[in-house]
Design goal:
Largest sheet: none
Radius of gyration: 20 Å
Strand content: under 5%
Number of helices: 6
Number of strands: 0
């Protein structure tokens, strides 16, 4: 989880006191909210040059995220067909 990773990295060097997780979240939670999907999508929506913004729940899509994105969101028919035929990125 990003929050726990950040929490550990900031204090792992011992340069600051290691607060309890509850204390740390109390002072840092708002910073993390700004970086999560809904606030980020809202910022993109506020730009006049951005046509549309969609949030995709990756947990609902499952393993076929790339196929779902190109076929359902971009509606890129040729790319969708190639993906469905089994094409893979070159190595």
């Amino acid at each position: 989880n990003q929050i726990m990773d950040h929490y550990t990295l900031v204090y792992a060097k011992g340069e600051q006191n290691y607060p309890s997780f509850v204390e740390w979240m109390d002072t840092n939670y708002d910073k993390f909210l700004e970086a999560h999907s809904i606030p980020v999508a809202d910022r993109y929506r506020s730009f006049n040059f951005v046509e549309s913004v969609h949030l995709v729940n990756m947990h609902e899509v499952g393993k076929n995220l790339i196929e779902h994105f190109f076929c359902n969101h971009l509606q890129a028919r040729a790319t969708c067909q190639v993906i469905r035929e089994g094409a893979k990125p070159s190595k």
